[in-house]
């Protein structure tokens, strides 16, 4: 039986997604699942080239949205769809909710255009579970400042992340059946306990 599931990790930069990705993958493997861990933008050779442009070059807002979806089209064709078809679990560090949150919320691109791109690129594919790591902006900012050199998105101002976070939370309310909002101000251990329980219930 193909019990493959598609799980996405979302949140503003510094919320803690990457910290928990490997944990969830390991927990699933311990339950006997084959797991593919991937990320967006990226996940394929072409997608990683597009990621490099997207994270470092200035471009028109619509170019940015189109390239995000171009990378996604390739990612679905080469990695996600084949993995799900053979029964693997797919865990992606970001997916289309990020386009709605960053290009839509953060940059103000019309949601209708994003809906059209989503309908074009993946009319039938949606995550089974989307983990939204939610933190106030000042917490995320302090975590980023402490740990890394900032890319194009991470250098955006508070207003951008405020709008990004608001759009993520709006989508979580719109699609409650697949979203789980994780209070990412909790200690890492507490979050992982919660994630373990979720994964165990999902993996049956
Ligand atoms: N719950 C947490 N409590 C304290 N620090 C955290 C927590 N989650 C993540 N961090 C730290 O914050 C930084 C950014 O986390 P990261 O997982 O890279 O965020 P993201 O992938 O969402 O941008 C890392 O140094 C990480 O160790
Ligand atoms: C997938 C996606 C990512 N992004 C942005 C969000 C992030 O700032 C950036 C890269 O994501 P991410 O992999 O989370 O960055 P990092 O490795 O630094 O944690 O791309 C969008 O703006 N739209 C999208 O559709």
Structure description:
- Pfam families: Thymidylate_kin.
- It catalyses: dTMP + ATP = dTDP + ADP.
- Phosphorylation of dTMP to form dTDP in both de novo and salvage pathways of dTTP synthesis.
- It comes from Oxalicibacterium solurbis.
- Residues 9-194 form the Thymidylate kinase-like domain.
- The mean pLDDT is 96.
- The protein has helices at 17-30, 45-56, 61-85, 96-106, 111-121, 137-147, 158-174, 188-203, and strands at residues 6-10, 35-39, 89-93, 129-134, 179-183.
- By secondary structure, it is an alpha/beta fold.
- The chain has eight helices and five strands.
- α1 packs across α8, α3 (61-85) runs parallel beside α5 (111-121) and α4 (96-106) crosses α7 (158-174).
- 57% of the residues lie in helices and 13% in strands.
- 34% of the residues are buried.
- The chain starts with 5 loop residues before the first strand and ends with a helix.
- The protein has a five-stranded parallel β-sheet with strand order 2-3-1-4-5, sandwiched between helices.
- The chain binds adenosine-5'-diphosphate and thymidine-5'-diphosphate.
What characteristics describe this protein?
single chain; alpha/beta; five-stranded parallel beta sheet; 13% strand; globular; binds thymidine-5'-diphosphate
Query: How would you spell out the order of helices and strands?
Result: EHEHHEHHEHHEH
The bound ligands are:
adenosine-5'-diphosphate, thymidine-5'-diphosphate
Low-confidence stretches: none
DSSP, total strands = 5
The termini sit apart by: 13 Å
Compute the number of helices: 8
Query: Structural class per helix/strand content?
Result: alpha/beta
Could you tell me the radius of gyration in angstroms?
16 Å
Mean pLDDT: 96
Q: How much helical structure, as a percent, in the residues?
A: 55-70%
The main β sheet shows up as: 5 strands, parallel
Q: Please indicate the percent range of residues in DSSP E strands (runs of 2 or more).
A: 5-15%
How would the global form be characterised? globular
In what order do the strands lie side by side in the largest sheet?
2-3-1-4-5
